[in-house]
């Protein structure tokens, strides 16, 4: 089988390519130009890795599409008082959208990545689903919640049954570990502070108020803050205060004690289900509200064109702009963007 492997220069994607080649597949590497500060250096490193693995390399320039679809989404979300998750959007539109199209155009039957997830095809329905990787410390299923059947059917994830330690061991044994780069950062287009993406004149200072309406300080522009934040508020109120929500309409930063961070329910806008024909609402699931959040039991019910998610136990810092992901056991059923009414 001819398989394109999305290469980043890291140990994970390189090991994925090695495993597929060892299994007898016709493998080639594909590298996306997105927002790398020194793409020539990245390409040179990848050429050395590909030479070591005896595979070819294709370079696809998606910088313009990445800027308009991902970076601009990121900026707009922050200016609307949200905390975006660009990786979820990039995976749907760029990595498993445009890159998958590029791989198919080059004769690939499958596209492989170094994600620590597993692909599962349900026998009864024929639907493909993402399952958590065996190494739960590295599981990346959360970031793939918006993929659909047209994408999933042409994907493969060679590292799903491996732990990170096992992958590193393979890389050392094969002899290319020294050629790979360090662990990639979570948001690839941010080199330091995300606030650097916003010109200083965009900042519109305003009042910091408590949930009962007391003015207790001044903020430096709402895009500088996120729900649950404690540091950097400049408050001296005798007890820790946290960002509860961002009141964009009135340019107010609303703060309160830790207890006020907990919410019993929220809504999901533009919900996506991996296999919609197999979903019947209301739905009993485990819900993850950010990447490092431990899933919590909840009911998901229809509310007009949106979904309402009601937790059994209130959860801390439900953040507009982040994604809620629905799990049945270790399987991703879908998800969507969080908002509060």
UniProtKB/TrEMBL annotation:
Q: Which GO terms describe its biological process?
A: tRNA wobble position uridine thiolation
Which superkingdom, per the lineage?
Answer: Bacteria
Protein source organism: Thermosulfuriphilus ammonigenes
Function as written in the Swiss-Prot or TrEMBL entry: Catalyzes the 2-thiolation of uridine at the wobble position (U34) of tRNA, leading to the formation of s(2)U34.
Species classification: Bacteria, Pseudomonadati, Thermodesulfobacteriota, Thermodesulfobacteria, Thermodesulfobacteriales
Identify the EC number(s).
Answer: 2.8.1.13
Which Pfam families would you find in this protein's record? tRNA_Me_trans, tRNA_Me_trans_C, tRNA_Me_trans_M
List the protein's name. Answer: tRNA-specific 2-thiouridylase MnmA
UniProt family annotation:
Belongs to the MnmA/TRMU family.
**Which gene does this sequence derive from?**
mnmA
Q: Which NCBIfam families match?
A: PRK00143.1, trmU
